[in-house]
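DYW domain-containing protein
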Amino acid sequence: MATSYRRCSLSHIARRLLTWFLSSSPGVSNTNLLIESLMIKGECGLANKVLRKARGSDGNVITWNLMIGGYVRNVQYEEALRTLKDMISFSDIKPNKFSFASALAACARLGDLHHAKWVHSLMSGVELDNPILCTALVDVYAKCGDIEASRELFYGVQRNDVSVWNAMITGFATHGLAAEAIRVFSEMEAQHVSPDSITFLGLLTACSHCGLLEEGRAYFDLMSERYSIQPKLEHYGAMVDLLGRAGKVKEAYELIESMPVEPDLVIWRSLLSSSRTYKNPEIAETAMQNLSKARSGDYVLLSNIYSSTKKWESAQKVRELMKQKGIRKAKGKSWVEFGGVIHRFKAGDTSHTEMKAIYKLLEELIQKTKSLGFVPDTDLVLMDVSEEEKEENLNYHSEKLALAYGILKSSPGSEVRIQKNIRMCSDCHNWIKSVAKLLNRVIIIRDRIRFHRFEDGLCSCKDYW
C-alpha cells in the first residue's frame, strides 16, 4: 500500500503508512513484498528499515536475499556485501545459493578480489552443482583480475550449462587471451554443448581485443550458418569494434550503413573511438552527427582527434560547444582495495588521508621513469599550451594516484590490482609499463574496455586496446 502512495507522489502518506507498518507485525510474506517493492523503486534506505524490523520473527532467507540482490540492482555493491555480513553476524539464517550469487555479482562489479575470496570461503559446504553458482564463481575471479583462479574453477565444476562456458570465454576475452577463448570454444563444441548468442559475443570480443580480424569474421558468419543464431545489435557492435581497432575505420562505417538493425549510441561511440585512434576526423564528425545524445566523453574524443592533428581551432570550437551546452568532461575514477577497504581516487584528487605520501611517491616514480627513458604522451592533452603544462595535466590521472597508493601500502614484489571506470589513456598505459619494469612488480588494471597485466615493461594487451 505504501508503495502505491509513493507512485502517486504522496510520500508523506507513504511514510506514515510505513511507520504504521513497522510498528505492527506484518508477517514474513508482507515484509518480503514490501522490501521487494521498495527495492524496485530504489528506496534502499526504507527497505533497510523494514529489514531491521524483520530481523525478529518477520524475516527469512528470502528477506535477506531481496535486500542483497536489491542493493546489487541499485548499484550499491558495498551495501550488498555489508548486508551479507549482517546476515551472518546478526541472524540465525544461513545464506543460500541466491545469497552467494548476488554477493559474488557485487564483488564482480567492484573488482574486489578480497571479498570475492571471502564469499567463496563461506561456500565451503555448498555443492557446486548449480550452474548459477558455478557461473558466478568463474565470472567473479575473471572480473577481479585472477584469471588463473577462474580457469581452475572452470575445470573443477560441472560444465553442462552454456552459461559456465560463456563465463570462461568472456573472462579470457576481457583479459585479452583470445587463443584461450577460442580453445575453450573448441572444447565446448567437442562436448556437444550448444553455444548461444552470448558465446559468440565473447568470441568476437576476444578477437577484437587481439586484432584477430579474419577469425572474427569467421565466427560472425559461423553463428548464423552453422548454429542458426541471427546476429543481434551487440554482435554488429562487436564487429564494428573489431574493424575499427584493426584500422578498418571506413569498412566499419560501411558495416554500420548496411546493418539490418538501427545502430545504437554504443556503435557510434565505437566508431568515434577508432576514428580518434587512426586520426580520421571526417568519419569522426559523421559519428558525432549520429550521436543524438552525446555525452561528455564523445565531445572529448572529437576534441582529441582535432588536437592530435594540431587542428587547435576545431578543438576550441568543440570545447566552446561543450561550455554552451553545460557539458563537463567526466572525471576518471580509479579504486584499489587494501585491507578489505576500497580506496577511491579522482584525477587531481587531494581528499585521501594519506595524499601527501601518495603525491611524494608519485613524483619520485615520475622522475625515476623519466630517467629510464619514459616520455610523456603530451599529444593527449587538449589545450594548445606548453609541453611543461601538458605534462602536469597528465601526471595526476586517477590510475596514477591509485597505483602510487597501492605501491605505498603493499609489500615489494606483490601484485597491485586497480579498477578504472573509463578507458585508460595511452600516457598512463606507457608510464605504468615503465613502473612495472622499474619496481619489478606485476600491476593489473581493469579499465572500461579490458584487463591490462603489466610486467617487465610490457602489457598483456601488446599495446592493442
